[in-house]
Design brief:
The longest helix has 16 residues. A hairpin with a 5-residue loop joins β7 and β8. Strands 9-10-11-12-13-14 form a six-stranded mixed beta sheet, sandwiched between helices. A four-stranded mixed beta sheet has the order 2-1-7-8. Strands 3-5 form a two-stranded parallel ribbon. The protein is an alpha/beta fold. It is globular.
Length: about 300
C-alpha cells in the first residue's frame, strides 16, 4: 500500500542546460510513473499478480484512466485509489542526459488530496488485515503517521520511504519512526533527516533511534548501506559496463529497489539477501529507458545467478 501516482513526461537531452542556456531535446517520452505506483509495480513483478494493493489518489481525467488500465494489467488491486474532481492527476517532468542522470520536477496535484478518512473504511481494514507488509512512500505527514500506527497495531512489517518529508528533520518525524521496521532513504534524504552531511554517519545515527530498526540508504552508483543499532554495512553497486550493459535512465531505480526489497521481505528473505536482490533490481532498471523498468522475478534471479557465477 503506497501513495504517489504521476504521469511522467521524460525529456532526453545530450546535456543539462546551464542557467539561461538553451539545449536541443533529443526526444520526449510519455510514460506512467509516480513513486508509489512504481514501487507497487516493482513488487507485483516479483510477487506475481493479485498480491499488491495500491492506496493513492488520482484526478478524474485521462491520466487516471490510463493509470488504472496499466495497473490492472500489471495485476495490482486498485480498489483503495481515491478520485477527486478538484485537481488533475499528478504529473512529473524528468530531464535525462546521455549518462542517464536525471532532474525531476513534480506537479503533485491529486497526490496532495489523499484523505485519511479512507483509513477508517471497512475496505481498508480488510486489505490491512490480509496484508503482511505495508509500504508508505511520500504521503502527507499526518496520513503517514495514522497509517503507520494502524500497521503497527496490526503487527505488520512497516516500510517507510519519506521522500519529501525528510526535509522536516528527525525531530518532527520521531513519532512516526517509532512504528517503522525499515526506513529507506537516498543520500540527500539521509542528510536532511539526520542533520549530518556524511551518509555513513547519518545512517548510523538514524539506526540508533529505534532498537532493531533497519535504515537503508541508496547511493546510486555507490550501491547502498544498511544500518541497524549503530552497525552499518555496505552493499556495492553492480558494474554494468563490465557486463556489457548500458545505463539509459536512472529515473525509477530507487523505486525498483524499494519494491523489490519489500517483495523479498514478504517472501521471507533475510535483510542482507533482500537488500542484495533489491540492489540488483535497481541496477537492471537503469538499463531500461522506461521509468517502470523493474525486472520480473525470473529476470532478477537469472541476473543474480550470473553475478554469483562470475564471482566464483
Amino acid at each position: 500500500m503506497l501513495r504517489a501516482s504521476n504521469w511522467d513526461k521524460t525529456i532526453f537531452v545530450k546535456k543539462f542546460s546551464k542557467q539561461g542556456e538553451e539545449v536541443e531535446v533529443e526526444r520526449i517520452v510519455d510514460v506512467p510513473g509516480g513513486k508509489g505506483t512504481n514501487v507497487a509495480v516493482a513488487s507485483c513483478r516479483i510477487l506475481g499478480k493479485d498480491k499488491v494493493a495500491l492506496l493513492g489518489a488520482l484526478g478524474s481525467d485521462f491520466i487516471a484512466n490510463k493509470q488504472l488500465e496499466i495497473l490492472k494489467n500489471e495485476g495490482i488491486f486498485t480498489n483503495l485509489i481515491q478520485f477527486t474532481n478538484e485537481v488533475s492527476s499528478g504529473q512529473a517532468y524528468t530531464i535525462v542526459d546521455l549518462d542517464g542522470r536525471n532532474a525531476i520536477l513534480t506537479f503533485r496535484q491529486a497526490n496532495d488530496t489523499l484523505d485519511d478518512d479512507i483509513l477508517e473504511s471497512e475496505n481498508m481494514f480488510e486489505y490491512l488485515e490480509n496484508s503482511s507488509l505495508v509500504t508508505i512512500v511520500d504521503p502527507p505527514l499526518a496520513f503517514a503517521k495514522k497509517l503507520i500506527g494502524l500497521a503497527e497495531a496490526n503487527q505488520k512489517i512497516m516500510v517507510w520511504a519519506p521522500g519529501l518529508l525528510s526535509s522536516d528533520g528527525i525531530e518532527n518525524v520521531m513519532d512516526i519512526i517509532k512504528g517503522v521496521n525499515f526506513l529507506i532513504l537516498n543520500e540527500s534524504e539521509c542528510s536532511l533527516i539526520s542533520g549530518l552531511s556524511d551518509t555513513l554517519s547519518g545512517c548510523k545515527k538514524l539506526s540508533m533511534k529505534k532498537h532493531n530498526m533497519g535504515v537503508i540508504v541508496t547511493r546510486g552508483e555507490n550501491g547502498c548501506i544498511f544500518g541497524k543499532d549503530g552497525d552499518v554495512i555496505s552493499t556495492p553497486t553492480v558494474e554494468l559496463e563490465k557486463r556489457g550493459l548500458k545505463k539509459l535512465n536512472t529515473v525509477g531505480a530507487g523505486d525498483a529497489f524499494i519494491g523489490t526489497f519489500c517483495a523479498m521481505k514478504i517472501l521471507g528473505k533475510d535483510d542482507p539477501e533482500s537488500i542484495f536482490l533489491a540492489n540488483l533490481s535497481g541496477a537492471l532498471k537503469v538499463t531500461k529507458e522506461e521509468t517502470r523498468g523493474s525486472p520480473t522475478m525470473d529476470k532478477l534471479i537469472k541476473f543474480r545467478d550470473s553475478i554469483k557465477k562470475d564471482r566464483t
